[in-house]
Amino acid sequence: MVVLSKIYTRTGDAGQTALGNGVRVAKHDARVQAYGTVDEANSTIGLARLHATGEMDEALKRIQNDLFDLGADLCRPDMAKDHEAGYVPLRIIASQVTRLESEIDAMNTKLEPLRSFILPGGSPLAAHLHLCRTVSRRAERLAVELAGVEDVNPEAVKYLNRLSDWFFVAGRIANDDGRADILWVPGASR
Q1: Residues 6+ apart with CB under 8 A from 3
Q2: pLDDT (tens digit, 9 = 90+) per residue, 138-149?
Q3: Which residues form the Cobalamin adenosyltransferase-like domain (predicted)?
């Protein structure tokens, strides 16, 4: 359980922050960039949820919770050391990735195959879901970059990869099951 009795601590005033293991790093550290962008993606979902109802809103709520798990995962390096010490930190697991895949497959059954790329937009919900898609894709790029130099849970990277796909398909669902998608017309404004 997290208890926040005081919001500001002044410990970051010199440009550093603490990771989940207590190690202090620069606020522009690659790990902080990755989990900070996951937090940004979560905030964009909050905007999308202003326009979502029913199953879509419930799915977005689950994803928001997953993204807190993902942030906790990314902010805790030294996976091997944790297990040696007997501490099991919160990590994204394969079933969370599989759930996204199942949801993508279920949504995709309602859609006609694409014959062109689509432009982000359409309904307010679709436009917000496309923003969620692009921010989560940036979070994925940052997590992959981090994984190139430090330990990162591979399931966390997989989750981010599936998540941007989830938002793409959900955006089409929000556009009247793809019927209101705005298609890209190559060279249309030449």
Answers
A1: none
A2: 999 999 999 999
A3: 7-173
CA-angle at 130, arms to 49 and 69, nearest 5°: 60
Task: Determine the longest span between alpha carbons in the chain, in angstroms.
Answer: 63
Strand blocks (E) in the chain: 16-18, 24-26, 118-119, 182-183
Q: pLDDT tens digits, residue range 48-94?
A: 999 999 999 999 999 999 999 999 999 988 766 655 666 778 899 99
Instruction: Give the pLDDT of residue 185.
Output: 93
Q: What is the DSSP string of 87-116?
A: -------HHHHHHHHHHHHHHHTTSPPPSS
Domains (range + CATH), the chain:
23-180 (1.20.1200.10)
What was the pLDDT predicted at 80? 61
Supply the pTM of this predicted model: 0.91
164 touches 133 (CB < 8 A) = yes
Amino acid identity of residue 27, one-letter, is: K
Which two three-digit tokens encode residue 73? 């995962």
